[in-house]
Amino acid sequence: MTALDASFLYVETDHTPMHIGALTVFEGGPFLDEHGAFRLEQVRARVSERLHLVPKLRKRIATVPLRQGRPVWVDDVDFDIANHVNLLALPSPGSREDLAALCCTLQMRVLDRAHPLWELWFIEGLDDGSIAMVEKVHHTMVDGVSGVDIAAALFDIEPDPPPPQVPEWRPVPPPEPAQLLVQSGYARLVNPTQWWRTARALTRTPAEAVEVASGMVDALSAQTGLLRRRLTLNGPVGDRRRLHSVSSPLEEVRSAARALDATVNDAVLSIVGGAARALLDHRGADVDDLVLHVLVPVSIRADGERGALGNRVSGILVPVPAAEPAISDRLLAVRDQMAAHKRRHQSSGIELMLDGIELIPSALLPVAARVVHHQPLVDVVVTNVPGPPFPLYFMGAELLEAVPIVPLAGNLTIGIAVLSYADTLTIGVYSDADSCPDVAVFVAALRSGFEELSAAGTAAD
User: Fold this and answer.
1) For residue 187, is it within any domain?
2) pLDDT tens readout for residues 277-327
3) Which of 389, 325, 407, 331 is nearest to 117 (CA)?
4) Which tens digit of pLDDT belongs to each residue from 59-72?
5) pLDDT classification of 197: cutoffs 50, 70, 90
6) Reading across the β-sheet that carries 85-94, which strands appear in turn?
7) 343 and 198 in a common domain
8) Whole-number pLDDT of residue 202
């Protein structure tokens, strides 16, 4: 397990579960038998026959004695699909608000580390007859892109696919504690070389070395967090969450952004900046010079690494000029900011800094990881993951909606996850119920932001 993967285990507390989630909604009929009962055993069988495509879904973590190394992945020799795929029912007729509340309750349950770190909860009882699914996969296993890869393995691209060829699974018994100690001793010698390998890979030529150095300088200069005023978006988080979503036709967003010579990601950041402005203005804050400090995760996963789990991410730190009331002005400013950070190769610099975690001794990594709960640099995380541009199916049921969920760290009260699926772009807003009781203002401003973007794009054409 890499140091970055392990850090998501160490960051986790009862108030900050570190799993990536999603709330999806399917057609209901194909899940039901002739008596209208949910076919849970068939669903479990369908998931089971896909597990060989993602081997880590049958692996649990094993800890090294005396914390002399990072946790390692071992086969769960007692794997039972019933620990991972289950059914709940809303009191009928269940509304979407009821579904979101149940989803948040499930998301706040920390995954059991005695088993592989994932769960699927199917939910019946919705008033329109659809079936929902709440997905939880620990961040130590996946980043946003590999999370989509899991969905691609479990779901189908047609309603009635041919039956898969399922190989026999033969779990490997886990190593004894003494073996783990020996293996961790070897890892302590090898892991620091990972940083040097990354450094060499990123700086194979003098020009590349200059690019990485420029990226590191840009990452540091992009944040004056230790000196800036704190926003009320930063604060302690409790044990209750709220989930909202806002959707828009993907082509509308893409066309409007293109008309302003920007990208979909630029447009999303501009809309989020406007929503933060509306929320802080609602709270009585001075928004005339408001700058929203956003962390945008960036996948560094090569094409050959698609399907492999773990975290292969860097990031860009973007100061979003949220003081601009007009979305066209915000969008142009964000576009220029993003272009400048890319020119200065900020993500390469951050990649090297993140890989520097490999140099931290295993015994100190838990302490270092928990610093994230008190970080002063970022106001909100906005992660944007491209999903498939075509419909997906499970058990013959079409996936109708998908709301992504990003976990909250200790002092981030709102998390933003963006997913494109088929012809729709959806923003999932996951917030702390106590520190952000007025999140409805933020959500309403997101909806207005999409409308303003469309109008600005039309005016620019």
Assistant:
1) no
2) 999 999 999 999 899 999 888 776 666 555 556 777 767 788 899 998 999
3) 407
4) 999 988 766 678 88
5) low
6) 85-94, 118-126, 131-138, 19-26, 397-405, 393-394
7) yes
8) 47
Whether 277 maps to a domain, the answer reads yes
Please check whether residues 198 and 294 belong to one and the same domain. yes
In angstroms, rounded to a whole number, what is the distance separating the alpha carbons of residues 356 and 216?
A: 12
Length of the chain: 461
Q: Which domain holds residue 357?
A: 193-387+409-460
Residue type, 122: F
Cα separation of 232 and 412, whole Å? 10
Residue 178 CB partners (closer than 8 Å, separation 6+): none
Same domain, 96 and 197: no
How far is residue 426's CA from residue 248's CA, in Å, rounded to a whole number?
Answer: 7
Phi, psi of 394 (to 5 degrees): -145, 125
| Rounded Cα–Cα distance for residues 62 and 64 (Å) | 7
Same domain as 374, residue 303? yes
